Every structure is written in C-alpha cells, then in structure tokens.
C-alpha cells in the first residue's frame, strides 16, 4: 500500500502517533529514507560598493555592473528555486567613490547604514562573509558598520546599536591577538524549512540546517598592516576549516558551505596561501563559493559566453578541476566574477540516507549567471526598488566627485593601451610617488635615510583599471575640448588614476638584481608568443591580475628596458639601462611603490617587507591629489610633454606569422595612435565580453 507521509507527519505533530508506545508525547515525524530536497545556494562576491549601474569616475551609467541588476538575477533565481539561500563572499564595503565618501570624506554615523548594506538588507541576504578589502578603512570603522564588538583593546564600537547588515556576518580565520577569540562569529547555522519530495512522490516540509563558514587571505596582515598590526592574527584556511567543520556538524549542520575569499591555487598547501580555496575541498565541506580573483567559474552558460579564463584552463588534470561544470575535487564550486556582474548558483540535490542528508553530485549543477542569461544578447533590467534606497548617497557621491582640484590637463590620460606601452595614465602617478620619496629623504632627520640621498629614486605603478572588470573598466581622464580651454581635474580623477584609496606609499631599497627580478615578475602578465604560429595569439592571456603589472619610471626617462615576449616567463627583460648604462646586479636603487607591493603582494622575489625604508602615513591616491595641488599652486598644469609621454619600456621587435591580439575597449584606435603607440591596428569585431580585438604588430 502507498504510504501517505504527509498524513503520518500530521498525525505525529498532533500527538496521535507517539514514541515508545506512548500516545501523549509529541514526536518529530521521521523523514522517509530516500526523501530528496533540492536547494539553490546563491552567491554574490566582490561587489565593491557597486550598488547602482553607475561609474562615478566617468560620471556615467554603466549597464555592465551593479547590485541593482544582480537583484533582477536574484529574483529570477528565487522564482526558479523556492528552496534558496543567498550568501555574499566579501569585498563589499570598498571600491568606489561612494565607499570612500561614506568611509572617509563624510563618514556614515553609527545611526546610519552603508548604502550597499541598505541594498543587501532589502534583498534579504541570509549570511555574508568577509573579504580582504573589508579591513581597508580600519577595525573601528568595520566594527561600527557591522555593529560588532571585536573585543580588541583600543577598538571601540560606538555605544548603542549601529546600522549594519541585517544578516549574520561570519569570519572563520581571524582572531584578536589579545583575546585569542574570533572577531566575528566563526560560523553560523541557518535553520531553513524547505519543500522536499518523499520516495512515493508526495510533498513534505523538512528542516535543513545550513552551516556557513568564511575565510580571508592571510595577507591582510601585510596589505593592511597599518591598521591590523598587533591587533589580529590570521589562521590558514585549511586549519580553520578543520577546526570548525566538525563543530558545525556537531551542532546539526546538514549542509556546510564555505565562503572563501580566495581563488584556486593548486600548488602545495601553505597556511599563508593567498588563494587557498582549492585546499578547502578536503575539509568536509559540501559546497564552495569563492571570490577575490574577479573571475568566472565555471564558464558562463549563456549564448556566446567567453572562453575560460586562462588561469582556469591551464590547471593540470591531476587537480581534478572541472571548470565547465563547476566542480573542484568533486565539490560544487562557483565564483560570480565581481561588481555584481554575475550571480553564482549551486543547485544541489540532497537525499536522506542513513539518518543524514547526503549531497548527490550527479544531480547538482553549478552556474555563474550573467546579465545576458535569457537570450545571450539582452541585458537584464535594473531592479527599480534598489535605486530609491540609496538616492541620497548617490547624489552626494556625484557632488563629491565633481569637486574641482584647481588644475587642468591638455591630454587624455587613459589605460586602454597601457599593456602595449601607453603611459599616459601611469606617468603622473609615478611622478607624484617619486617626488614624495625624494622630498621625504631630503627633509629627513634620520641619519640612515639621510645617507641615501645620493641613491637614485625610481617609481613604479600599475594600470589598475585596464580591463580587469570588463570593457568599461579602464582609466580615462578626459582632456579639454581645446588645449587653450581644457577641462579642470576633479576629485574623481585621482581615484581613476590610482584606484586603491587604502594603499599607502612606501619605499624600498633594492639592488639591480632585485630590479630585474621585479621586472620579470611584471612581465609574466604576457603570454609567450610563438613567432612561427599562424594562429591568433592573445598578448595578455588573463587580465585578472593586471594590478601586478608594474611600470617603472625615472626622472628624465633615465630608466629604460625591453620585454621579449617570445621568451619564457623569467627570461624576458633585456637592455635594462639607467642613464644609458647597463644596470649591474650590485647597483643601488630606491623604489617608490605601495604597501601592498613592498610587503610582498604580487610575490616579487625579495620584496617581502624586509627592504622597506619608508612607511608613509599618506595614501598613494592622496599623494597623487597633493601633487596635482602643488602643481596648481605653482601655476602649472598637466601636459602630455611633461606628464604623459615618457615611455620607459618597449617590446623587443619580433615578426610573427599570425596575428597577436590585445583586448581593450572598442573605439579607441585613434587614441593609441595619438599617444605614439604606432604598432596598434583594429582587428575588428567584439568578443563575447564586449572587448574589441586590436592587432599588435610586434615587428614595429
């Protein structure tokens, strides 16, 4: 006879079916063996305060990004999957002028709530993890805007209840130094009632306890040393997971989800790995949601989706990474790009077997869904409910962005062709950093620093906005309509030139051998080009780590070097000279850079904090602003001749049988030619991500 599980459950809840022969004790109805439940785990990651589809640096709408459009994807996914949990993987509170306004220029009070948190609260997130950028503005600020007392001496949360996320904030691998306790709750258990299906096809409601963990890169101690030193310590992701996954299971977690703010590094495990997510798959978790790398995993399923990122396609077979279906060592895994451009969806089925819920991999699917998921062509519309929530903050940010700096420019500073030599958006940053360090040493009363006065000072900076986040993600500071009447620079422009407001200027003392190793590390951004191949070759296989492509500069363009992209990584730098003479291994240099790079970010050999001689209290972005202000007070202006044409590097000339391609924003060929980059030609057409393909003639 067919069993009516729904009727049995009703009788049990009414006390008519008891345990041990008693008719008086209510009993929880047994879940029939073989019952199945399908749950959709939804992920956003690396939102970086992109609430609206708007670019504050360009003061223009940008329909390729924004949580207001992700909201539309979320609503659709919820309609498709009534059993759902919405989670965020961190890097929420920093990344736009809106974020800087609320954290620095006009700090949000305890009584207020961050604009991005207003939107997330309206979307009813179930839980959120942390990213490295959550720490950029300091622990006191993070404590306030999450309404969390960290228990750290000297870090006081304002009295009372502050505006904060309406969902649990979780972090599993950061503890207070003095207390030895996690600063956030290390995990949360979310009890959810989900619709399930019994073996006979009847429907019933089951309680599923969803456990959520969160991990950040250990490198936060280096990247934000100025605000974290002596206050917190970080555990390796695997060690933290091995501690807390069993705790979650003992507290009844049926499903354990790891929010890991790190990419997939398949090298041997180290507790200090920046991208240790791969190694979480061996800790007993059921699902893995990752971020930090701003990449798409698995490959997009919409029509015309871009090919897999090279960093995923290059994994060895032994790594057991299925980048098409979204599994890492058998664990369903998703990364939803960045800036709200995608929604990660892990739709998994669990079966009740032997008294517990067991994930069924064969019935689990993974998707990183983009804005074109319906027909592959039409962008989803923004959710009209989001913009009114942040209208006041949006207007205030635009007003802030338009504040004049009091100086003008006679040329367009852009990064569209920074990867083939255009320095128009980099030289000014390098000049500002170099000027700062020279003045710092010249005016220092420290005997050691004073002894460095005769050592050459050079500077390096990366084209931070050069396509990492899509074809709208390029530095572009407009020139005036005519040289005689240029547009004045505004508050928004230094942030366009130097994206990271949290970076502080530092200087390192190095040898010529260190400089060459540094340049070799930067040159890893390029593919190894085969001159004999007639097939199309991408000059830059991945734009995901473009922030590690440092371009060096010395006054009067005294430092020059070439890159031979036909050679393997590590053997590409040739003709490295300073003032016309070859740089010797023992030559001394002082390099103006940022705290991320000086402390080991980017894994430059030997640059690990041990060579740092200056730790400035000033942010690199502020150094650029102040440099512009100093030019203004002297009656100067920013000119192409003085501030945007000193190209320190070039490619070794190489004829190729087939086309070599650079992907950049469409419609800027004339800008390349106007900047003196003569080896660029339009190849024609857009790729699936909206990038134009420009042909690079390496023989010129």
TrEMBL record:
SUPFAM superfamilies: 5'-nucleotidase (syn. UDP-sugar hydrolase), C-terminal domain, Metallo-dependent phosphatases
Annotated Calcineurin-like phosphoesterase domain residues: 44-294
5'-Nucleotidase C-terminal domain mapped to chain residues: 502-603
Molecular functions per Gene Ontology: hydrolase activity, acting on ester bonds; metal ion binding; nucleotide binding
Secretion signal span: 1-18
GO CC annotation terms, alphabetical: outer membrane-bounded periplasmic space
Similarity-based family: Belongs to the 5'-nucleotidase family.
PANTHER family: 2',3'-CYCLIC-NUCLEOTIDE 2'-PHOSPHODIESTERASE_3'-NUCLEOTIDASE (PTHR11575:SF6), 5'-NUCLEOTIDASE-RELATED (PTHR11575)
Domain of life: Bacteria
Alphabetized UniProt keyword annotations: Hydrolase, Nucleotide-binding, Signal
Pfam annotation, one family: 5_nucleotid_C
UniProt protein name: Bifunctional 2',3'-cyclic-nucleotide 2'-phosphodiesterase/3'-nucleotidase
GO biological process, one term: nucleotide catabolic process
Listed InterPro entries: 5'-Nucleotdase_C, 5'-Nucleotdase_C_sf, 5'-Nucleotdase_CS, 5_nucleotidase/apyrase, Calcineurin-like_PHP, Metallo-depent_PP-like
